Amino acid sequence: MSKEHSSRDSRQLGKEKQSGERGEGVIDAGFPARVVNFPQPKRAGLATIGTIFHFVAGTDVALFSKRLPQLTMQNQINEPKTIREDAGLLATLAQRSGDVVLRDGTTVRVRVMRPEDEPLLLSLFKSLSEESRWRRFLSLSRDSALAAEAHREACVDYCHTFGLIALTGLEDHIVGHAFYTAIDDERAEVAFAIADDFQRRGLATILLGQLAEVAAANSIQVFEAETLASNTGMVNVFRESGFHTKVSVAAGELHVSFPTSLTTEAIEKFERRESIASVNALKLFFNPRAVAVIGASRKRGSIGGEIFHNLLSYGFQGPVYPINPTAKVIQCVPAFASVEDVPVAVDLAVIVVPAVHVLKAAESCGKKGVKALVVISAGFSETGTEGQAHQAELLGICRAYGMRLIGPNCMGILNSDSAVKLDATFAPSMPPQLWPSR
Known about the structure:
Blueprint: H1 47-56, H2 68-71, H3 87-94, E1 97-101, E2 107-112, H4 118-127, H5 130-137, H6 143-154, E3 161-168, E4 173-182, E5 187-194, H7 203-217, E6 222-228, H8 232-240, E7 246-250, E8 253-259, H9 264-286, E9 291-294, H10 303-313, E10 320-323, E11 329-330, E12 333-334, E13 348-351, H11 355-368, E14 372-375, H12 385-401, E15 404-406, E16 412-415, E17 422-425
Parallel strand pairs: 5-6, 9-10, 9-13, 13-14, 14-15
Antiparallel strand pairs: 1-2, 2-3, 3-4, 4-5, 6-8, 7-8, 11-12, 16-17
Helix pairs in contact: 4-6, 11-12
């Protein structure tokens, strides 16, 4: 079970906790994403993956860890300054953001916490289930106490207090928060809150790695955390992350500490997780559980008609849903007016509508929770400046909702594995069978 760590400072929220009740908190283990599109050289063997996903997934992954060394300023005698010593560096850091790939291949946007994010942070705290509140605050904290804690954690100075937030949706909905507050010049306490529907997807581990990088650049050498002695899962997750943890027990509580610097072991584990996340991102396209065709047509010979026909006739091993607001049935399959009306989860959506309707269709997919888009429609960057602007809007929608993207203006995708049999193209003939039947 994915859990979040509870901070010593936030334990002020536990005043109403009754004797004998328990609260638990563990960092959510997961997989951070490859950093791409930075000017510095990428590590051999992984640069290609990053480049592919900028095109295929339409997602730039811009994190803090690979940029902080460049942001460290030096004076004339070549002595490095920390973040807290340079006001310009603080301003730069506060404006930075980037997209990260979660364990399941979807994305969220991570940026530095700012004081004006307090209402968004409070909304996250209020949205947590009772169990998640116990893990984070060691209590079922009332809204007034949550408001006070949100105010405290939003008042960051980027030196002694620092936070990162993960956002999704066009309206910047916070789904993850990582926060440290300095105990002294070299030590800080760390805490996390992850929205219930984003737990067990690796988000907290991503935030942990990035927060540790920032702390190390700011002369914080050690992170500390405290939780109940029954919460051994938290220690296991820290260890699995590659940090060298030290654990002590006092008065029924665990005190965990670990250095903020990434060891070789930690870096190797992060890179393995990145590879897994990249593979899972491709699985969203080539091994979906359900497919929707937005713009499916009753007319054979049309692109929308042929793609839907090919998905059915090739024998896709899952449900295929036609989306068309003007038809009740398409090729003997009941149709839906919108992808949001489909009663089950949809992993992959193929969009085959005129370019002017693509953005609305993509936003509907985001609201539905679709994880991967294939946009067949033309009329984007290949048409000039206006089309480039529309394509940028499309990418913005995909980033906001954490969707991966192939296209626009493509022929589709196919997977001839007999366990999948996905032909989401408008090709006139069937693809060959590359794998034997299973």
